[in-house]
Amino acid sequence: GDSVTQMEGPVTLSEEAFLTINCTYTATGYPSLFWYVQYPGEGLQLLLKATKADDKGSNKGFEATYRKETTSFHLEKGSVQVSDSAVYFCALKGGDSGYSTLTFGKGTMLLVSP
Amino acid sequence: DAGVIQSPRHEVTEMGQEVTLRCKPISGHDYLFWYRQTMMRGLELLIYFNNNVPIDDSGMPEDRFSAKMPNASFSTLKIQPSEPRDSAVYFCASRFSFGRNEQFFGPGTRLTVL
Question: What number of CA atoms fall less than 13 Å from residue A108's CA on the CB side?
Answer without folding.
Answer: 23
